[in-house]
Structures are given as C-alpha cells and as structure tokens.
Amino acid sequence: MSAPLGIIAGTGFAELPGFKRRELRPVDTRWGEPSAPLQVGRLGDREVLFLARHGIPHHIPPHRVNYRANIQALVDAGVGDVLAIAAVGGIASFAPPAAVVIPDQVIDYSWGRASTFFEDDLDTVTHIDFTLPFDDRVRDNIVWAARAAGIEFHDGGVYGCTQGPRLETAAEIRRLSRDGCDLVGMTAMPEAALAREAGLAYASVNVVANWAAGLGSHEITMDEIHAALKAGMGQVERLLDAFTD
Ligand code: HPA
Is the distance from CB of 185 to CB of 132 less than 8 angstroms? Predict the structure, then answer.
C-alpha cells in the first residue's frame, strides 16, 4: 500500500469536495499542535490526510500558522506526497480571478516565521537544495491531472510569499512584478521549505482570488475573493478527482 497523500488547504477550502472522512485525529508534535486535527479518509482511490492550514473554523492568520507542526504532523502520520492548495492574488496577465495556476518557483518576502527544522541541537549544519521549490514528480502529476480533468489552468508561475495578514500596497505589487512574481500569497513559505527539509514531496495548486493590489479596477474586497474562490474551487475539485483516480 502506498503512503497516504497529504493535502494542506487554506482559504476557501475548509471542506474538500468528495472527501470521505473516517476520522478526525487530534495530534501533537515535537513542534506543538498543528492548525487542526488531521482528517483521515479517502478521496477517490487515495488514502488522504487532510489538514486545514488556517484551522477549523478558519481562525489562524498566515503569519501565525505553526508550519513546523503542520509538516511534522504529516510526517508522523506516514505521508509521502503533499498537495497544497492555496488562494493567491494574480499579478501576471495569465492569472485573473478564478484562474488555476500550478506554480514552479517561489520568492520569499515573509519574515519572522519559524522557517526551519534545522536550527537547535544540531550535530551539523544542513542546507537543503531548494533550486526547484516544488517536487518535480508531484508537480508533474498535478499538471497531468489538470489536463486529464480538462480544466483551464496555467502551468508554471513564480509565487511571491508576503507576510500578511494585510494585503499588499500597489507599490509592493509593482515591486513583486519587477522581481518576476506572477502570483502573491502568504503561505507557501516556509511550508514548502519545511516539507523539503522533512523529506516530503510537496507541490502546490493556486487559485487566484483577486487581482493583486493596484491591478484591478477597485479595492480588493472579501466578497470578491470569496466569489472567485468559489468559481476556482470547482476547477480544483475536478483536478483532485483526476489526481486521486
Ligand atoms: N495578496 C496576498 N495573498 C493573497 C491575495 C493577495 O492579493 N489574495 C489571496 N491571497
């Protein structure tokens, strides 16, 4: 039997459509408690451990998520591959609201987060390779599933991770754009790096919730974000169906 699939999902994805939950498993780790109990069950043909990144109900802001505990909880539960789902703002023209993007790079602008497993009680200093922040094989499987599901999506994109919880200024988004960011979100880091440190094969699917600050025709509202996520969620649902088939 293959290792269970870990799914970490955030804003707009408190429920996984089609997920048949058998158990709500509270866990503790050497880094503290994860955002929520692990939801153990099946999605399609796969055994899945689902973790709500912002807690149940959604109450933990991005800079307060205990990313180390979340990743450790999945490791301790025997997960191998991790599929992360996250809402983002769109910067590139290929990322309008409700678009699905499978990113391939990250620039980290977050700060002050516990971002490594390798800092205390070390025998040796460890530097993980992070040239490609997302696992190639899992990423390829996600792209394959998106194609098989027949959804519209964009393959590739640079995710800029900001600190939040506030949204960015228009000037900050112009800077991210000059830096080469196509998407802006608040949670890919340190999540992706910790997964790599822990030996998990981690890749991500992003749903665009809004044009990033200054790029749309008006201020960003939570109503607009929820409407776009609802539309994008239908696409992700089809992708997940194909991914776990
Ligand atoms: N910025 C950062 N994170 C986000 C955004 C945004 O505009 N939209 C959804 N998550």
Answer: no
Whether the pLDDT of residue 123 is over 90: the answer is no
- Give yes or no for residue 79 having a pLDDT over 80: yes
Distance of CA 210 to the CA centre of its chain: 16
Task: Calculate mean pLDDT across residues 103-114.
Answer: 98
pTM to 2 decimal places: 0.96
CB atoms < 10 A from the CB of 90, how many? 27
Residues 190-218: tens digit of each pLDDT: 999 999 999 999 999 999 999 999 999 88
Per-residue confidence band for 4, with pLDDT thresholds at 50, 70 and 90: very high
CA distances from 43 to 19, 20, 22, 97, 121 (A): 5, 6, 11, 27, 39
Check residue 174 and give its pLDDT: 98
Give percent above pLDDT 90 in the chain: 87
Distance 168 CA to ligand 1 centre (A): 8
Residue nearest (by alpha carbon) to ligand 1 atom 5: 89
Q: What is the DSSP string of 110-158?
A: --SS---S-SSS-SS------SSSS-HHHHHHHHHHHHHHT---EE--E
Burial of 150 (0-12, 13-18, 19+ CB in 10 A): exposed
Q: List, in order, residues 6 or more apart from 226 with CB less than 8 Å away.
A: 12
- Residue type for position 2: S
**Top mutation candidate among 168, 173, 207 for ligand 1, by most atoms within 8 Å of CB:** 168
Residue in the structure block whose two tokens are 């408690």: 33
Q: For residues 82 and 8, is the Cβ–Cβ distance under 8 A?
A: yes
Which single residue is written with the structure tokens 């980290």? 108
**For residue 60, what are the β-bridge partners?**
none
